């Protein structure tokens, strides 16, 4: 019944952190661990991690608002946070893609869609997470990471870069995002959007044109060949009296 969402589409783009994989709590833990080394008794607002704010902006805002005076540069804090995150996930044995991702990816591939990965994270971090998830780069027609663009999300550059590499009109691309920042980026790029929603932020914080909010991917595979109207007619027909035809 989700055919309406892919009509006229030629490509799909997936965000990584929080979308393909439920891993933002690891980033939150990494930020908290690094804040602990500053010995000031506080840490950045964890909601910024779930909102999709990049590490540089998270630490910049924290230093400004808390008026922290420390010997660590912004670059050091970002690097230490990345290192802490990679250390955390290296010890985790149960990191898996969200429910339904593999089936959905296979279905898009079968339908000859172009498939891409777009992440604000740097390539080295993306490499390690994909390896952890056993997701091969070859599965994607394009991968764009945060260190390849001048402006990260919520700026649309990263999504427009992916569209350019795919040689596809942004209007012909469907995006899967989880964060408010990422959703704004895709919306500004002129792409339709489905949000993998954690409930951390209310739906009204996301772009008004968001197609739908889902917990994960499992309801999509096997339901991309039927429109909502066709689905409702089918369900109505099941409960109709014998011989009745629903039009």
UniProtKB/TrEMBL annotation:
Entries under Gene3D superfamilies matching the protein: HAD superfamily/HAD-like (3.40.50.1000), Putative phosphatase, domain 2 (1.10.150.240)
Stored SUPFAM superfamilies: HAD-like
CDD domains in the record: HAD_BPGM-like (cd07505)
Pfam families: HAD_2
GO molecular function: phosphatase activity
Domain of life: Bacteria
The protein's name in its UniProt record: FCP1 homology domain-containing protein
Organism per entry: candidate division WWE3 bacterium RBG_19FT_COMBO_34_6
């Amino acid at each position: 019944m989700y055919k309406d969402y892919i009509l006229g589409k030629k490509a799909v783009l997936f965000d990584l952190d929080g979308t393909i994989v439920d891993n933002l709590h690891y980033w939150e833990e990494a930020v908290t661990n690094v804040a602990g080394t500053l010995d000031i008794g506080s840490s950045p607002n964890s909601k910024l991690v779930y909102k999709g704010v990049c590490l540089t902006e998270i630490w910049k805002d924290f230093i400004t608002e808390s008026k922290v005076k420390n010997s660590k540069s912004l670059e050091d804090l970002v690097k230490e946070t990345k290192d802490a995150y990679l250390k955390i996930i290296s010890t985790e044995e149960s990191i898996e893609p969200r429910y339904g991702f593999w089936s959905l990816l296979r279905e898009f591939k079968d339908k000859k869609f172009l498939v891409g990965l777009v992440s604000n994270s740097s390539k080295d971090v993306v490499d390690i997470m994909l390896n952890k998830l056993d997701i091969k780069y070859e599965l994607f027609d394009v991968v764009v990471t945060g260190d390849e663009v001048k402006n990260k999300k919520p700026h649309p550059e990263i999504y427009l870069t992916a569209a350019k590499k795919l040689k596809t009109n942004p209007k012909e691309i469907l995006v899967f995002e989880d964060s408010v920042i990422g959703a704004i980026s895709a919306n500004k790029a002129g792409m339709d959007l489905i949000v993998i929603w954690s409930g951390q932020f209310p739906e009204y914080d996301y772009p008004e044109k968001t197609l739908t909010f889902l917990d994960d991917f499992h309801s999509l595979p096997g339901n991309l060949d039927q429109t909502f109207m066709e689905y409702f007619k089918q369900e109505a027909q099941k409960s109709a009296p014998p011989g009745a035809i629903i039009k």
